[in-house]
Amino acid sequence: MLPNIGIPSLILILLIALLIFGPKKLPEIGGAFGKTLNEFKKSTTQMMEDDPPEPERKEINEETTTQSETHNQS
Fold first, then answer.
1. Residue 72 C-alpha from the chain's centroid
2. Tens-place pLDDT, residues 29-74
3. Cα–Cα–Cα angle for 37, 40, 45, nearest 5°?
4. Which segments cross the bilayer (predicted)?
5. pLDDT class for 5, splitting at 50, 70, 90?
């Protein structure tokens, strides 16, 4: 959470949300928010796992550069 939000501020935000959406809608909104946050977390961790480490990226870029230079010379 944000470090500047205290307990009184959080209670005020929850009360305003309760007034706007009503008591029946809040659990649905909270569940949807939780699922969205979970999917976002899964996607970011998967993207981080799919990326090769830095040295491998440089090697891949050097290989493609030499291949394109070879094609340009022929």
1. 40
2. 889 989 999 999 999 888 888 766 666 555 555 555 555 555 555 4
3. 125
4. 6-22
5. confident
Where are the chain's structural domains?
35-74
Which has the closest alpha carbon to 21: 11, 29, 13? 29
Vertex 14: Cα angle to 10 and 20 (nearest 5): 145
How far is C-alpha 66 from the geometric centre of its chain's CA atoms? 35
Cβ–Cβ under 8 Å, residues 65 and 73: no
Query: Tell me: the pLDDT tens digits for 7-23?
Result: 888 889 889 988 998 88
